[in-house]
Design a protein that fits this description.
Layout (H helix, E strand, L loop, with lengths): L6 H15 L4 H19 L1 H9 L6 H12 L22 H17 L15 H4 L21 H10 L22 E8 L4 H4 L3 E6 L4 H14 L13 E5 L26 E6 L11 E7 L3 E7 L6 H12 L8 E5 L20 E6 L8 H17 L4 E8 L6 E7 L3 E6 L14 E4 L3 E9 L4 E9 L7 E9 H18 L2 H18 L4
Parallel strand pairs: 1-4, 5-8
Antiparallel strand pairs: 1-2, 3-4, 5-6, 7-8, 9-10, 9-15, 10-11, 11-12, 13-14, 14-15
Amino acid sequence: MTMMDDKNWIISHIRNSFITSDDTGVCEMVMQPEMMQDAKKERSKSVSIGNLKRNQRSVPCDLRDSSMNSEGDSLSNSPDILPDMDFGAHRLRTNTALRLERMKKEKTTQTKIRHIPWREPDKDYNVDEQGHLYEKKCLDFVEGKKKKRLSLLSAKLEETSKIPDNPFQEFAKFDGRQASSSSTKKIGIFLTMMDEENRVRPMTVVTLATARVIDLIGLICWQYTYEGRVPPLTSNLECHSLHIAEDDGEVDLDFPCLDNQEPMSKFGFTNLALVQKLAPPSSPKPAIVITVNIPDKGFSKLNVENDQVLMKDILAKVLHKRKVKDKGLQYNLEKQCEPGLPIELDLPLAAMETREFCLVRENSSRGMYPEFLEDLHHNTLAESLSSHQYKSYRVSMNHKLRTSTDVQLGISGEKVEIDPVSGKGATKLFRQKAVTYEAEMIAACDIMEERPTGKASFRLTYLSKAHTHDFKHHDFDADVQTAREIVQKVNNILELRSSPVRKDYLTMREKKLHKRYSFPT
């Protein structure tokens, strides 16, 4: 407070305080002219200040300092504001205070430590009177029986070992009860496969929000099995589905089940029901197709279940299918790629390393046999006579712009009929119309493809308009045996009738083949 009697210092301090605290700069513009006037007055007093300095020796020290401060402060500004100044901040602690505090902490720590000096034991230590220093503890247990496990972890492990293996263990990772950071969903699941008493009480399941519907089904099955509920569930998840359920456990079957690939975060249901479906029919394994070539006659295809069938059984099936009469002749099988080397009939099909064979008479080479010619003649004659009789087949008709439809294909010596099979889901717009083609308008019937699944595609070619060359066709799918029978029946009818439409079609097809394989010279 000793400096507050200097009016010049106070005015300068107030001016600088206004200027430094004003962010707009208006105070500096207002005070600038006044500060310039004060500066002029200070310059006029410079002469008197010089005379005062010459007489400093004759003035006492205290008065000289006071006069210098009063005169010099009129031209000086307020001190600069620095970040390390102690104004308004906490003063740094001295080294002495820090050292005293450190010594206090060390003393507090030492009070917690107990020092025990080591002393040599007495040589006349009596064990019987004072006892052993480290005496063995005796535990009471019955001999012949195992020691009881007393720890809680051992008891828990023993209980866990009695739990049967859970086939849905891989879905336990979607259990949200152990997830602390991930988002979860709590859903009540009604179990429709349980009895009526337990069916109305839902099982609470907490799942991760990122799980799919199929993952939730696996988690439900895992928790169901882990809790030991009955009846046991099947390990096939395709036999289960999730449906919307009411609060009382009633399943709403008006809506379809949830899609297995949809995420659970998409749905906001609090109650669902696990419904057990019938097991999906197991797809039959594709049969192994064996081709047996007969010289100058064709070939036969046989379907066997596995590759452990003996070759002698395959030979018997071929002879039975071909209706070969036993006239004391013996037949054998050869690999198609190894002529003249008969195979051992006691070996299984897996040891042959091929699926194509050739039927050869014993002590003969590959050629046409009279008994086959006789059988072929009788079979062809019988098929030709029965071809004109009416017979219907259930086949699938293929379309270009829509799905295939089931039709009834009726064939006789006079006409070919295609009647659609009525279905519940078929609409009137895309329903196949019934059509009839006269036998004179049929041009050809050929097998287009035989697939390993046991299905075959065949094509029926016909003339759409008379006296034209506008041939069209229908494609059908059926099993291999049915497709071959239909093609054979239609071709027998066409060969017996020898219609002009078929002759024109064959001539046109030969011309197309000739153009395709002919090259200019």
